[in-house]
Amino acid sequence: MVRGFDRHQERQSSIQILGKTLSKNARFQCEWCDGKDELRPYDTQRKKEPTLDTLLFLCEDCRNIASGGKFEVNSLRNRLNGLWSERNIVKETLAVILVESKALWAIEAVENTYFEGDFQP
Ligand SMILES: [Zn+2]
């Protein structure tokens, strides 16, 4: 138990350290919606060692969406800018949620986005 706890603490502190670079690169704005409320790093791959490529910098609402919380599909319209991100993790995680929303405009936006490698939302 103690070891698991230590590992958790270690992980939290490395996320915190990475979060400083992350927030600076994101210009202290949410990477999905440009919002500024309660910005924090969001861990997309909890089983892997956190890196800048597995973390998002998101506001409270976007973290809720990212973690599978309930939201209005239309609120995704304010988040389409995230598809223009230079960071693959930002576009890819957002694209998955847009496609899952099944809204035609959301799917179209994803279809018009260029993804590197063999990513398929
Ligand atoms: Zn946001």
**Helix-strand sequence:** HEEHHH
Helicity, as a percent range = 40-55%
- What strand line-up does the widest sheet have? 1-2
Shape designation: globular
**Main sheet attributes: strand count, strand direction, barrel closure:** 2 strands, antiparallel
Q: Any idea what the radius of gyration is?
A: 15 Å
Number of strands: 2
Q: Spans with pLDDT under 50 lasting ≥5 residues? A: none
What are the bound molecules? zinc ion
> Which percent band covers the strand fraction?
5-15%
Structural class: mainly alpha
Average pLDDT value? 94
Number of domains: 1
Calculate the terminal CA-CA distance, rounded to whole Å: 37 Å
Number of helices: 4
Keywords:
43% helix, mainly alpha, 4 helices, 2 strands, binds zinc ion, 7% strand, two-stranded antiparallel ribbon, 121 residues
Characterization of the model:
This protein is mostly helical and 121 residues long. The chain has one domain. The chain has four helices and two strands. It has helices at 2-25, 60-66, 88-100, 104-111, and strands at residues 40-43, 55-58. Strands 1-2 form a two-stranded antiparallel ribbon. The chain is globular, with a radius of gyration of 15 Å. 24% of the residues are buried. The model has no long low-confidence stretch (mean pLDDT 94). The chain binds zinc ion (ZN).
Short description:
The chain is mainly α.
Task: Chart the SSEs and their pairings.
Blueprint: H1 2-25, E1 40-43, E2 55-58, H2 60-66, H3 88-100, H4 104-111
Antiparallel strand pairs: 1-2
